[in-house]
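Box 3.1 A note on notation
Throughout this textbook, protein chains are presented in two layers. The first layer is the amino acid sequence; the second is a token string describing backbone geometry. Keep the layers aligned when reading.
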Amino acid sequence: MQDTAFPSYRGRLEYVCLGCGCRKSGDSLYYTCPECGGVFLLENVDFATLKKTPGETWRAIFDDRAKTGNVALRGIFRYYELLAPIVDAEDIVFLGEGQTPIIEASRSLQDAIGAHFAYKNDGQNPSASFKDRGMACAFSFLKWLCRQKQWDEVLTVCASTGDTSAAAALYAAYVGAPMKSVVLLPKGKVTPQQLSQPLGSGALVLELPGVFDDCMKVVEILAEHYRVALLNSKNSWRILGQESYAMEVAQWYNWDLADQCLFVPIGNAGNVTAIMNGFLKLSDLGIVTHLPRIFGVQSEHADPVWRYYAVPKEKRHWAPVTVQPSVAQAAMIGNPVSFPRVKYLAERYCALAGENAFQVVQVTEQQIMDSMLLANRHGHIACTQGGECLAGLINARTLGLVADHEHAVLDATAHSLKFADFQQMYFTDTFPEAYGVVPKEELKNKPELLLDPAEREGRDISSYAAMAAEAVVARLGLSKRS
């Protein structure tokens, strides 16, 4: 049994610009490079020290921490040395995030799809989405920073299509002073369930006409000119926290990732970036000996990353796209801020694991909804992004990109209940034309009224129950016991 006391190890983190190579100290708030405007990755310049510990010892350390009662090591900071090893135990914010289960797809669903796969249910995080991983890390760093700088007020701000605002508001509410939460949402582009979350957490919610990209630009202006803590994926500390997803997948499969594929929806491209970087760290330390193949998935209504990788290397050119309405709202982003991270890390990833180790597949809105409902019909709790991943697996199989012997892990980034309105639109055939979704009769469902409400009036409970039972028997065609 390894010592599960809080680690004494501390690293030295620096922001590294992927554009010009500029470096900035990790004990400050930076979002884009002040020299060239490029995006940052956080790098532990003392990472080599960790290589002195054998991979098998790291595996034992992380496995023992899975059983610890030390709250600071219960969540994503089980992998403390690989994430943000400058914060102290007193700074760590833990709301139960991380350690979400990987649920093997039901046998009937696997047979229907013709593939072996499972869902990682990240909707079982506290605010019901994967964003909690990044927020736990970002707010832990902010607590540490406020203590170091003796700040008495920090305004946290984010643009969101729902999940980011819910997570940011939740963690800000839990931490309390000196944190105050403000979120910017594109009016009418967030489900009622998602809108209720930051409101319920007490955040100041500001709506703007337009789409996510418009709100994101406003937040960038605020972060550039004012002392605010930006909590979108431009925040490199958030990316660090989301790396825990990769580490959990590896640990779930006993650190053996041979013949594994991961399907990840691409919105602002922060999550797929984090997952690649997480696996690269595990590989660098000898914790895993195989890297899984990673498939990014994009809807044809918001597919700039797919378009970039859909052509030969010599013809690739980055260009944002104008998005169309998408049921995968978290992925409805035409100019993902983390694309430079994707490009940089994908090159490193493919250099280690082969040229097909990172690929992007495109899906339709129809496929996303059909796949979400199909998964949930078989006992899962997939959101629309989870449907997007299943659609991506189906298309990848059709294209011959995934072999029969390979196993896939699909990212259900949020809880299905956040997207109940889209399900209802499907069942009632009320999707606006812009989505391009035509419901399939075999996937529709609705409640059936067995008796007229007037038949309840004037009856005692016994006579009414007997009449209602007869109606149920008739509807189900039940036979009496012999």
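Residues 131-149 form the longest helix (19 residues). DSSP finds 16 helices and 13 strands in the chain.
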